[in-house]
Every structure is written in C-alpha cells, then in structure tokens.
Amino acid sequence: MKTAILRLLKEDDSYISGQQLCDRFQVSRTAVWKAVEQLKKEGYMIEAVRNKGYRLVDSPDVMSKAEIESMVRTKWAGRSVIYYDETDSTNIQAKLAGENGSEHGTLVVADRQVAGKGRRGRSWESPKGVCVYMTLLLRPSIAPVKAPMLTLVMALSVAEAVRELTGLKAGIKWPNDIVLNKKKICGILTEMSTEIDYINYVVTGVGINTNQETFSEEIRKRATSLLIEGGRHISRSELVAAVMERYEENYERFMETKDLSGLQEKYNGMLVNCGREVRVLEPKGEYSAFASGINEVGELVVTTPEGEEKHIFAGEVSVRGIYGYV
Ligand code: BTN
Predict the structure, then answer these.
(1) Is residue 326 in a domain?
(2) Which CATH number does the domain housing residue 305 bear?
(3) 264-298 pLDDT, tens digit each
(4) pLDDT tens for residues 288-297?
(5) Domain with 245 in it: what CATH number?
(6) Domain range enclosing 306
(7) Distance CA 51, CA 247 (A)
(8) pLDDT class for 322, splitting at 50, 70, 90?
(9) What are phi and psi of 312, to 5 degrees?
(10) What residue owns the CA closest to ligand 1's atom 7?
(11) What does each C-alpha distance from 212 to 5, 33, 85 come to in angstroms?
(12) Which is the closest atom of ligand 1 to the Cα of 117?
C-alpha cells in the first residue's frame, strides 16, 4: 500500500484526502496515516493539512523498494524490486534470487555495495548514496551462446536512458561501457547459470556513476559521473526506472529475432568506436584497424590496413581507441 500511496501522491500536485485513500485501499485512516509516516521517515516531505489531505512537497534522492516500484512503468522489467541499503554485490544477490526461483524481470538494487564486482575479476567502487547499483534477473529462452548479446542490449538501454533523462550525449564504447567526454560513466557485468543447451538464468549488473563527485586516484583519469558532466543531481530512482523502460522495449525487440538485427542501427548510432581507428588487443598480439560497427550478433566489425575484415568477439579481445581509453 505504501508504494501505491506514493504513486498516487506523485501523480497529483494537489491534496489527496485521507478518506479518498481509505476508500481506495479499503483500510482505516490509521493505516493510511502509518503508511504516510513511514514514507516521511524515508525522507519524503509530505504535507498533511486538516480537511484537505496529503500532498507530496518534495522527494529527495531516496532509494527504496517503494520509491523504485512507484516509478517503474513497465510490464515486467523491474516491476518486482529486491532492495538493500547495503549488500555485498547486487549480482551475487540476483544470482541467489535466481537460484531461489525469483521471476524473470526481478531487479536487485542497492544503495551501497561492499564487494562490487567489475569485469575480468576487478572490483567496482560502490560508495553509499550516490550511484546506481542494480542487477536484472532474466530467464530468456535462448541458447547460452547468445546470452552475451544481452549485455549489449543493456548498454544500449542505459545510453538511451541517460540521454533521455539528462540530455547528455552518452555514447557506447564497445561492447558495453557507457562513456561521456571519453570517460566511463557506467559498467555492465553479465553472469549466468546454464546447462549445456539451456539457460537457468542470466543476471545483468549495471553500475552507473550518477551523483558521485570524486573518484579514487586509481580510476580518476578514466571515470566520470552524470553530476560532474551535467552539473546537476539526478534522481537515481528515476534513472533506474528509465533504464528499465528502455530495456524492456529493447529486450522484446531482441527476442523477436534472438539477435541484435533490430537494434544494431540504434546501437551503432551511439557507438563511439564507429568509423574510428581502434587498437585490437588479442591474447596473441595487437594491431590497429578501422571499426565500422557491430554486426547482428554483436561482434565488432573491423578492417585491417591490409583490407582484411575481421569480426571481433567480446570475450576474446579488448579494444582501445588509439588516443587512450575510448
Ligand atoms: C565493469 O567492470 O565495467 C563492470 C562493472 C559492473 C558493476 C555493477 S554495479 C551493480 C552490479 N553488481 C556488481 O557487483 N557489479 C555490477
């Protein structure tokens, strides 16, 4: 009920009477009052005026299950939220949820992670109260070999949501970093549990540097945040909801063909490596090549100076711009 009251208060700029809320939810005035008091404790400024009712005056950047669920307007992506003020890693918790039978589209969100995981065994800095740490649990009926493409679907969705919400021109660094002004604002880590030809579940974890003002010495040169780039605070719950909306639409498009053919054009339009010279770092050596975008399975298509076309699969190699990180 708390979530539903919050949703109603958000939809209406004027007062909603206590009686209206009682009738709507078939509960007592005390139950409504208690739910409103809980929301106030979570940081919402709710004005209560005799004979008029309740009005939402201000919602700070609070993250909570009720806040996120009240914002998400999707059919399934992020409709059910598992929220932690603090956890080890939302990917770890989403995998547990996957083992325990949680449904497709369940979203695990945390205000802080104490063991945030990055790709290639690295860690992910996860300070409290300023960034988005979330992991989406999926149960797609696709072959396990196709699952890495879901990371690209998420990269596209984050870039679109950031553009929509901030007006900043977020780009994608293949395969799945989101960048602004050549610095990283988001990383994505997909993990899965599979049988030989069957996916039990996939978890796609997303870390977005949202309102962070400083970074550790180690990553300062390569990382930035939406606040640093745009000069204003962003509501993290709104950002979570925007990503879920974009993702649901893009995922459904992906599932029509079970590849990226329907999203390739949008993805390539945001790809910062597109039409640029890149440095391909393969285990057996490195070389420069010209990148022309992804193909329908998400491989980066490059042409070597000798004119040979190569398709680069994300798991095997990494790509650097010739001028540094991007
Ligand atoms: C990368 O190395 O670029 C991937 C970083 C992924 C970080 C996110 S934060 C939410 C989720 N939980 C984790 O432990 N990692 C991912």
Answers:
(1) no
(2) 2.30.30.100
(3) 999 999 999 898 888 888 878 888 899 999 999 99
(4) 899 999 999 9
(5) 3.30.930.10
(6) 276-321
(7) 43
(8) very low
(9) -100, 125
(10) 207
(11) 30, 35, 17
(12) 14
